[in-house]
Design brief:
This protein is an alpha/beta fold. It contains eight helices and 13 strands. The structure holds beta-D-glucopyranose (BGC).
Length: 249
Amino acid sequence: MDVLGIDIGGSGIKGAPVDLRAGELTAERLRIPTPRPAEPAAVAAEVRRIVEHFAWTGPVGVTVPGVVNGGVMRDAVNLHEAWAGTDAAGLFGGAVVVNDADAAGMAEMTYGKGRGEGGTVLMLTFGTGIGSALFTDGVLVPNTELGHLRLPGHDSAKDAEHWASDRAREEHDLGWQEWAGRVQEYLEHVTMLLSPSLIIIGGGVSKKADKFLPYIQVDAPVIPAALRNEAGIIGAAATAGNRRGTPLP
Ligand code: BGC
């Protein structure tokens, strides 16, 4: 079955139909810049535009960069404060709504490097923020929000993602090795807390893994994600398909 996956990020909203058996897009994706300010109504209008572009009448899965429970948002710090308490599922016409990192993790566990992996698998996405998806024997613990951890010895008012995300690398003009040092410190902390058996690194930086992973060593294997830019779209579709009982591979 095909499901339309839509991935809402801080800079772009991307969508495409996904073949759930193969975990692949069946048409070229459409990308629309995220409206600013990224208030719920403005973002919903772009989501609708994507649905109309593909003349879609089937199931839809949408990712959001924030905590979401039963379709209702707690927050989305990198979008707009008005998202707090918003019924995103209702706003998006009854779509299944899932946290962006949880979706990317779902995609990776179903079609990528996490396939068949038991134990505690931690997927971390490095982008505008740091997203996290935690799996225990393949089952997702949703909304873990590990990007907002505070690191020991750092400004206690600052989230780790302000220091170690890919945006921090760009904003502070860090070289790869210097940034890798920050990621190393962050990974040491999450490894101490969760003792993962595998850490998968996703987000835009995963395609440049050879530039920073050689500098990283923690008490768990750290590998780049297999699914790159499309992980959010595929994970959104897979989550929606899953909730409707569509068999995944
Ligand atoms: C948000 C998370 C999100 C992550 C990556 C964080 O700031 O709180 O929900 O997964 O950014 O977009």
